[in-house]
Amino acid sequence: MHTFEFIRPADPAAAINAAAQSKTAQQGADVRFLGGGTTLIDLMKLNVETPARVLDINRLSFDNIEDTSDGGLKIGATVRNSDLANHPRVLRDYAVLSQAILSGASGQIRNMATTAGNLVQRTRCVYFRDTAMPCNKREPGTGCPAITGSNRTLAILGTSDHCIATNPSDMCVAMATLEAIIHVQGPKGTRAIAIRDFHLLPGDTPDRETVLEPGDLITHVTLPPPITGSKQVYLKLRDRASYEFALASAAVVMIVDRGNISYIRIGLGGVGTKPWRSPEAEAALAGKPPNAASFRQATEAALRDARPQSENKFKIELAKRCLVHTLQTAANG
Amino acid sequence: MATTFDPTVSTTAGRAKNSADEIAVPITLRINGKEHVLRIDPRTTLLDCIRETVELTGTKKGCDHGQCGACTVHVNGRRVLSCLNFALAHEGEEITTVEGLGTAEAMHPMQAAFLACDAYQCGYCTSGQIMSAVALLNEPCGPDDAAVKELMSGNICRCGAYANIVAAIQQVRQRA
Fold it and tell me: N or C, which end of chain A is more exposed by having fewer CB within 10 Å?
């Protein structure tokens, strides 16, 4: 691990000013905010992350969950994943978020991991994590050995010729279906970013994963008012029953009204280079009766643009079956 | 394996420091109710600080990457992985290791249950299992074995003592 200066900023302004001196907020950042550390410290041990300054934001009072005036929910940046998943309002109104978080990692890691940290969680691609290997995400321009190498767990949606790394987050997939808003305070003021605009596709700049710029501090996330009467389901498929990243997962928020689907939001995990929302699958189901035929149509639409690699063609059918099962569970709910 | 100061570690030009003394910073850590006044390299994980600096070796290093649970300790009563925490981040907090749970003469009920249920073989993962299990008593967890298994999935046992570990935890929960 490279040496670094450990700093505990007195307030958000001090944290933002210190972070604004970084040349980037993306891969290669020389200043990093420390939340739970579950990604950052791991990657620092691997020399994938080499910040010269680590800013501990855990004592900046971003650890509250509160109701918003419109009936939604405000979640502080350093709220721990376990506290968010077990919060009464999340359990009651945003069940898909609770299910998704509880399907990820372990009890210890959920006690550490923060809301904001999970939003910027890094890929588990083995080439990204190994500094002996080329990687366009870690060192732009060096190539992507995953495309011809070990790619069983990697993405089939949103890939490019430069990167096929999977976004590993469960929480973000649920937040995508709940249309969460990410609130950022930066050197130029505050802004609110819809989660669908927050993560970037790799394209030819896979080192850029989010829209965050130097000094941008995620302060909180808001969830819109709950979708009254919706059924919410998260299903995660993986190589072992617990404590494992998704090979494929699906998040569904659905309302069936007089025999037809009147509200539908669909997210996919484990298959995309960003937390995946599928407007195509949603369009295929809007106004349709919830049955095997419509569900199959929706999954075909969701995976139509899938581009499999040498070892992960199975993910196309796995993701389809995962989504069908999740839709059926929601419809029966 | 230790990640405490290693003079051969390469550092980026301009921020290289040449000796452990130059890098070390002061910290007071409260572990098992006792204050420890220390000087440590900022890179020191809570795990290495507990084991190498404070010399409490009950907490074990397994993978050192958050994938095995052997290093589980409590911070302010909640279970966390000490390998993925910097010691410097925990000044002023209450850290509990397996040494703080009980003694050979007065064991914590969970330690006694592990003994009674033969919930270990080689014993390397055991302190992490016990720390995780004690914290689980205060977490939302369904009554059945499946719920316990799910919430204990972050503690790997290579000997495969899982069945007896679940039995030990259920014994304590039923008596609580």
Answer: C
